[in-house]
Amino acid sequence: MKPVIAITPEAITLRSRMDGRGSFCGVSYSEAIELGGGVPLIVPLTRDHRVLDHFLETCAGWLLTGGGDVAAKFYAPRMSMSQRKRISGADEVRDEMEIYVLRKLQERDQPVFGICRGIQVMNVAFGGTLMPHLDGHRNPQPDALAHRIEWTKHGWLNRAMEGFDRVNTSHHQAVDRVAPGFEVVARAPDGVVEAMERPDARFCCGVQFHPERLVKKAPQFQNLFREFVKACRGRR
Ligand SMILES: [Mn+2]
User: Fold this and answer.
1) Is the pLDDT assigned to residue 235 strictly greater than 80?
2) Please, are residues 167 and 147 in contact by the beta-carbon 8 Å criterion?
3) Is the pLDDT of residue 38 over 50?
4) What is the Å distance from ligand 1's center to 182 Cα?
5) Does the pLDDT of residue 93 top 70, yes or no?
């Protein structure tokens, strides 16, 4: 049996629809899970713990995807107005849902992989903070290997990517103070955190770049999903 991987979607609003609030998940995420040997399952946006507990029970691992910014109240309740203005696309239902799921996954030692916003909400869920805005990390081409990374520690991610050191970049926030229990494993040349992992977990990793957009371009990115799905095997 292939492991079922829960994927969290992005909250979006379509003004053209009466019931405009909905969820969206780029097909590149589900395709990357399929390529990695798993079965993707896009979960609903909800903060109902009974519903989330059901998916925690029935899915082998979770993939946290990109999207809007995490609301400031979850990591910097006293943030200045000028900084707060840089935050966009925050959805508190998604924030609360992912923070709840992350803490439960930690308790259960179940695998989780966070991409872009995923690494950021992972850091927030365990007590870290975010930079509300930074320049130089937005490249309009989704699969351009736009900047280098320097691997600072060996671990899951470095091994899976065989030390490959060029990534795409499509973010305006980043991890600031790193949550206790996590190790930064890769940084951009300007010092921005590009990957981190929790050494004592079965698989708890986050990347600031978008490997799902590069799986067909370089095998190292596909390896990330294969290793993640492999870590999920053996769990329901
Ligand atoms: Mn970057």
Assistant:
1) no
2) yes
3) yes
4) 19
5) yes
Cα 161 to averaged position of ligand 1 atoms, centre (Å):
16
How many whole angstroms from 75 Cα to the centroid of ligand 1? 21
DSSP string, 51-75: HHHHHHHH-SEEEE---SPPPGGGT
User: What is the C-alpha to C-alpha distance for residues 27 and 17, in angstroms, rounded to an integer?
Assistant: 22
Question: 209 alpha carbon to ligand 1 midpoint, in Å?
Answer: 6
How confident is the model over 94-116, as a mean pLDDT? Answer: 98
Distance 146 CA to ligand 1 centre (A): 8
Query: 218, 25 in Cβ contact below 8 A?
Result: no
Domains and CATH numbers, the chain: 4-232 (3.40.50.880)
CA of 16 to the centre of ligand 1 (A): 33
Each residue of 47-85: pLDDT tens digit?
999 999 999 999 999 999 999 999 999 999 999 999 999
Q: Find out whether 32 and 218 touch, Cβ atoms under 8 Å.
A: no
